[in-house]
Amino acid sequence: MKIAMWSGPRNLSTAMMYAFAARGDCAVWDEPFYAPYLAATGADHPMAAEIMAAHETDPARVAARCAGPVPDGRAHFYMKHMPHHMVAGFPLDWAEGCVNVHLIRHPARVIASYAEKRGEMTLEDIGFPQQMALWERLPGPVIDSADIRADPGGALGRLCAEIGLAFSEAMLGWPEGPRPYDGVWAAHWYNAVHRSTGFAGAEGALPEVPEGRRALLEAALPIYEAMKARALRTG
Predict the structure, then answer these.
(1) What pLDDT, in 10s, does the model give residues 105-125?
(2) CB of 107 closer than 8 Å to CB of 221
(3) Where are the domains of the chain?
(4) Among 162, 177, 190, 196, which has the minimal tally of Cβ within 10 Å of its Cβ?
C-alpha cells in the first residue's frame, strides 16, 4: 500500500510519520516536494538554501519516485506531503495510485504553532485552501489531529480500518530524538517531536489568536469546519 498523508504545517504530521515508521513494515518519505516547492516559488523559508542543496528539486523526479517501487523492501510506503507544496504544474497523477488521507487541525492551533517558527504567514502558507482543493481532486479519509491526540489508539485504529491496514500497537510510540528519514529542515521545525516518545495527549483550550491574525483565522476556519464535517468519527 502507498499512503499519501496530506496536511498543512504544524499539524501532527511528523508524529504521524514517526508512528507509521514505527510499525516496521512502512518505508517513509518526509515532504518530498518541499525542495521543488522552494525552487519553484523562491519562498523565504528557514533553511531554504540548505533544503534545496540537500534534497531533489526537480518535481518530475520526485513524482517518479512516488510512483515507483516501495523502497527498502517494505510492504508499504508512507509519504508525508503538504498540499501547498504542490505548485501548479507539478505532477500529481502519481497520487491517483495512493490511498490519500487528509490530516487537519484547528487553524487557531496551526497559526499559534507556525508563528513560533516563522513569524510571517499567509493563508496559502498554512495550506487550508490548497488542502480543500486537493481533497476534492483526491478524496479520502479525513482525520483531525485533535482526535488523534485525545485517543491515539482509537483514532489510529479507526484510520487503519478505514484504509484496510492492520493496526499495530507499535504505532503509539517511538524513540526520542531525530530519525534518519527526517528532512534536513528538521533542525528548525522538529524540536518538539524530537523530544517526544509518543503522542502528547489531549490539547487544552484553543490559543488566543492576536488581532493582527484574526483575518487569517476567519479565512481558514470555514475550510477547516467543512473538512471537519467529513472527518472520521473516532470516539
Answers:
(1) 999 999 999 999 998 899 999
(2) yes
(3) 2-228
(4) 177
Q: In angstroms, rounded to a whole number, what is the distance separating the alpha carbons of residues 32 and 130?
A: 17
Averaged pLDDT for residues 64-88 = 97
What are the cell numbers at 218? Answer: 476567519
Look up residue 166 and give its three cell numbers: 492492520
> Which helix H or strand E contains 4, and what residues bound it?
strand 2-7
Phi, psi of 118 (to 5 degrees): -150, 110
Rounded-to-10 torsion of CA 204, 209, 215, 221? 0
The residue whose grid cell reads 509519504 is: 79
The domain 2-228 is placed in CATH, from the list 3.40.50.300, 3.30.70.1050, 3.30.450.40, 2.60.120.260, at: 3.40.50.300
Q: Give mean pLDDT, residues 203-229.
A: 97
Q: Is the pLDDT of residue 44 over 80?
A: yes
218 secondary structure, DSSP code: H
Burial bucket for residue 173 (CB in 10 Å: 0-12, 13-18, 19+) = middle
Q: Of 186, 165, 164, give the one whose Cα is nearest residue 177.
A: 186
